[in-house]
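Support request, priority: normal
Reporter: lab tech (M.K.)
Component: structure prediction queue

Hi team, I submitted a job for NmrA-like domain-containing protein from Enterobacter lignolyticus yesterday, and the status page still shows it as pending. I've pasted the exact input below so you can check whether something in the sequence is tripping the parser. The sequence length should be 282 residues. Please let me know if I need to resubmit or if it's stuck on your end.
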Amino acid sequence: MIAITGATGQLGQLVIHHLLKTHPAKTIVAIVRNPAKAQALSEQGVQVRQADYRDEAALTAALGGVDKLLLISSSEVGQRAAQHRNVINAAKAAGVKFIAYTSLLHADTSPLGLHVEHVETEKMLAASGIAHALLRNGWYTENYLASAPSAIEHGVFIGAAKDGKIASATRDDYAQAAARVVGEEGHAGKVYELAGDRGWTLSELAAELSKQSGKPVVYQNLSEADFAAALKGVGLPAGLADMLADSDTGAAKGGLFDDSHTLSALIGRPTTALADSVRTIL
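Reply from support: The job had stalled in the queue. We restarted it manually and it finished. Here are the results:
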């Protein structure tokens, strides 16, 4: 039995998609906050169990009979550590034998503010006594391409990453890796630094958008404070805007780059190229 937390999220759904290729649906448990959103999973034969990251008792019940767990990190920055502690405590109480956790690229040395809660979770896992693997995911290509339509419309892609290389991969690339690690044996004790095969700068992203859209797009580098202010100005919540600006600054310091090709080795194919992702979103 393999369980996935956050199973109706974008990453969780993709992981289950890949697991269904190699595992019977009845052996997959989707742990979700709102079962109504998991109707499609239920129709495929996946077991849907309700639990919230905040509710340790519900998590313990949901993990009954589960051997392996994919702990997809909570989306609530600032509350992650406490929520992850609930999941780990519940896994221990339920007798889960293995946990794979979606951490952050080079979490132990990352300049990104996001690293703090990931490192804390990694330490909790080490202290739990449960066999585990760390999936230290780099940036999703989709994180930047969400701004592509606006950049093409206005002819400017803004950020604060300077010439920092970003070795991103798609959610599907990371999901395939997660499905393999939680679905196979032999991954306990491993730390996987996962990133795209080829790094790129935001200037190169702007050039690719320009090339494929046929409209001129240039990259404009801002200070972290100005970038955060611009994001808030278009309606992003303050916490999210500050996190994205901090992450761009971290990228300028090399925090989103890795050239180990660990991800492509794990999934057995090259990671999705930036040009292909741009083509898809356009």
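The longest strand covers residues 98-104. Residues 80-94 form the longest helix (15 residues). Let us know if anything else looks off. Ticket resolved.
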